[in-house]
Design a protein that fits this description.
heterodimer; A: about 375 residues; mainly alpha; MetI-like fold; 2 domains; B: about 400 residues; alpha+beta; 4-stranded antiparallel beta sheet; two-stranded antiparallel sheet; 11 helices; about 5% strand; globular
Chain lengths: ~375, ~400
């Protein structure tokens, strides 16, 4: 009665779900609709990519020679226009011989910005570095001392102007926005209404109307015979504009602080300002760093609008470089692509940083 | 004998919070009033010194400039206020069309981020990142340059099936010849919509009372389309279309979208749709997986669970940021001034340069945008309340 032990057939190994081939099967050819989409897109790519490559690289002219560019028109891009007009696009009308000054000043400012973005350096001495660097920046840009030639603000332009307007627009708006955000949550009706009116008024109108105001109305607001510099007026306009948006970001952070924190502070006997300074703001401001970063990106892009009130920042400098030059004007589209690329690099890296810091700050709350 | 409440005491001392609050408010108001007074004083003094006249009286005088494209008949002899009206209508036109197109494109892109196909996901991601990170003004200028520079002149226009003409004069497209048939079709479609809404209300009540499910989608659609078709038939079933033809140096027939309009529209739509895509993606991501699983476990089909479970919950997250994107699009349409589309800002700019009345013209621009912004946000707040969680 003994039965011989008969092992049953081994089950087949499970289908591999990791690795390149299963990934392709799942993500490119799962089901016939999916496969059809993949094939259609691949067919389009086969048709379009070689032509794009031809235009942008293979047939493109890189030498700054207008005649070669003209000959290649329609078949290849003319990147020569960027080579030829590089200094004009990047620095605008800044005197040619002194262009190392905006270069050094802007590198200094950008380095400071990058340092300010790293958490390890969020220490009190960072404020001192800012106090030291900002005057150095303006001395380098404006000159007039230490044997540097004086350069008036209407000659500032290009990328340095873009970075400067965005940076100082946000840095100056920051303290205003904190005060306004606190005011909007205040229990005092008059102060609350003033802050709400300011925020909603600014957020309800486009930046361009604020810039028009800066260039047409601010001179009228000043005492007779005095008119501030156009750059100062535009900077004030941008600051007032971004302060309203930043105030809403900060308010978001303030609202996220649990009420118990404030009540605990009050029960300890802290005054209103002590509560805000020691309990609420440190938590709220750390929470809104990604939001502040997004506001900075928005303002960085919005500085392109100052070209409408004739300040030649990056977008305006391109027009300055090409509009009056009949030889190179036909290749403006390549110039636009170059400028768009610069904006993209700046904004994309800032948005990556914003995502990263969001993740970093979120780590303390995930359990 | 009743216990009397302690009398309310007002402490007029610095230790009273109420008193200090009052002082702060008085000081703040005084500072603001003083600032406004100084600014007004300076402005009046400056205007007197420069000989600038003030007041809105100029609005009644003839404008004296031409406007490239108008929705309502306009010529240079019409008064300024009428020119402003033309500008406002142009702004509203580009904003309204832009909002519709950006919503459609943005939703497709946002849903595309959840596609099963990796290439579609990649394309949607690349699109969003590229168009979000380049200033919208630069995009407008690029599209305008591309439209006016790269497309052939009118005599050499690209014809798409003889119906559309594409040239550096813009896009010309066929339109139906307006007649009694279209009018009747339009009116009966409106009647159909009203009947459909009433029907849906009734069907919803029936469903809640008796549990009898009636078609909530196909019957209303059939009502609207059927009535419109009947109206069209009653009007004599007109089929005449006005198609564009090149006649020498101009186009005969059809309707034209100028390159300025197309460039502004494309720039705004492509830029805003990238933001909307991110909002839609975040909205869908916010609905928890359990909801989908619960929906399929009670036997809802995939489309039902999307329509009845996922979208209503996602919409709650989507609507508030979507409102601010719509407002952004409307406000960004003011950049049209850079490429010469005659929106309200560019009309105001021209009027400002002609009359020198900076205060009045800028006040008009701000008033127009404030009205639009505040009324849009009021409407969206109402809609948001309607779709918010109903809590008992």
């Amino acid at each position: 009665m003994s039965t011989v032990f008969q092992p049953i057939q081994a089950r087949p190994a499970p289908v591999r779900t990791e690795g390149l081939v299963p990934w392709i099967r799942a993500n490119l050819f799962g089901g016939w609709v999916n496969s059809a989409i993949t094939l259609a897109i691949l067919a389009l790519a086969v048709a379009a990519v070689p032509r794009l490559l031809d235009w942008s690289l293979l047939n493109a002219v890189f030498a700054p020679d207008a005649n070669t560019c003209q000959a290649a028109r329609g078949t290849g891009a003319c990147w020569g226009v960027v080579v030829e007009k590089f200094r004009l696009i990047i620095f605008g009308r800044y005197p040619y011989g002194d262009q190392w000054r905006p270069e050094v000043a802007t590198l200094l400012l950008v380095a400071l910005l990058i340092i300010s973005c790293i958490r390890r350096f969020w220490k009190p001495w960072l404020a001192l570095v800012w106090v030291a660097v900002v005057p150095a920046y303006f001395v380098l840009m404006a000159g007039g001392v230490f044997g540097l030639e004086r350069v008036t603000t209407d000659q500032w332009g290009g990328l340095p102007l873009t970075i400067m307007l965005a940076t100082f627009g946000i840095v100056l708006a920051y303290p205003i926005s904190i005060v306004v955000a606190l005011g909007r949550r205040s229990h005092l009706p008059a102060i609350r209404s003033l802050c709400i009116v300011y925020i909603e008024l600014i957020r309800g109108v486009p930046l361009i109307s604020v810039l028009f105001m800066a260039s047409f109305l601010f001179p009228l607001f000043m005492p007779v015979g005095k008119s501030p510099d156009v750059l100062v007026r535009v900077l004030v306009g941008i600051t007032l504009f971004s302060a309203a948006y930043l105030a809403e970001v900060v308010r978001g952070g303030l609202q996220a602080i649990p009420k118990g924190q404030v009540e605990a502070a009050q029960s300890l006997g802290l005054t209103y300002w002590q509560t805000q300074r020691k309990i609420v703001l440190p938590q709220a401001l750390a929470m809104v760093v990604p939001g502040i970063m997004n506001s900075f990106i928005a303002i960085f892009k919005d500085t392109s609008l100052v070209t409408i009130v004739s300040l030649y920042e990056l977008t305006g400098a391109l027009g300055l470089a090409l509009n009056s030059d009949a030889d190179w004007r036909p290749f403006k589209i390549e110039g636009y692509l170059f400028v768009a690329f610069i904006y993209f690099i700046f904004c994309f890296s800032m948005s990556r940083y914003s995502l990263w810091i969001e993740h970093q700050l979120g780590r303390s709350r995930t359990r | 004998m009743s216990e009397r409440a302690p009398p309310k005491r007002r402490e007029w001392s610095w230790r009273s919070q109420a008193f200090r609050g009052l002082v702060y408010q008085v000081v703040a108001l005084a500072v603001v009033v003083y600032a406004v007074w100084v600014l007004t004083e300076n402005t009046l003094a400056n205007m007197a010194a420069r000989g600038i006249q003030s007041g809105f009286g100029f609005l009644a005088g003839p404008a004296g400039f031409d406007i490239g494209e108008t929705l309502i008949p306009y010529d240079a002899l019409d008064p300024y206020w009428y020119a402003f009206l033309v500008g406002i209508l142009n702004t509203l036109r580009v904003a309204a069309i832009g909002i519709v197109l950006a919503t459609i494109l943005g939703t497709l892109l946002g849903v595309g981020r959840y596609s099963h196909n990796a290439i579609v996901r990649g394309i949607c991601y690349a699109y969003v990142e590229f168009f979000r990170n380049v200033p919208v003004l630069l995009q407008l200028l690029m599209w305008y340059l591309a439209l006016t520079d790269l497309f052939p002149p009118l005599y050499d226009a690209i014809s798409l099936g003889g119906l559309f003409l594409l040239s550096n004069n813009g896009l010309v497209f066929p339109v139906p010849v307006w007649g009694r048939g279209q009018l009747l079709a339009g009116t009966s479609a409106v009647v159909g919509i009203v009947i459909a809404v009433i029907y849906r209300r009734w069907a919803q009540k029936r469903f809640e009372a008796t549990g009898e499910a009636r078609s909530m989608f196909w019957v209303p659609v059939a009502l609207v389309v059927g009535l419109a078709f009947l109206g069209w038939l009653a009007g004599g079933a007109p089929t005449a279309w006005s198609t564009p033809k090149v006649d020498g140096l101009q186009v005969v027939g059809g309707a034209t979208a100028t390159p300025e309009f197309v460039a502004v529209l494309m720039g705004l739509v492509l830029y805003t749709s990238a933001f909307i895509a991110e909002i839609v993606r975040a909205g869908i991501a916010s609905v928890s997986h359990g909801q989908v699983e619960a929906a399929s476990s009670i036997g809802l089909s995939k489309s039902q669970s999307m329509r009845l479970v996922i979208l209503p919950q996602a919409l709650r997250v989507i609507i508030p940021p979507m409102t601010s994107q719509y407002l952004n699009l409307t406000k960004n349409s003011s950049l049209a001034v850079a490429i010469g589309y005659p929106d309200v800002v560019s009309i105001a700019n021209t009027a400002l340069n002609q009359t020198g009345r900076a205060v009045e013209c800028i006040a008009i621009i701000m008033a127009v945008y404030l009205t639009t912004s505040l009324s849009t946000s009021a409407f969206m707040n109402w809609y948001n309340r309607r779709s918010a969680i109903k809590e008992r």
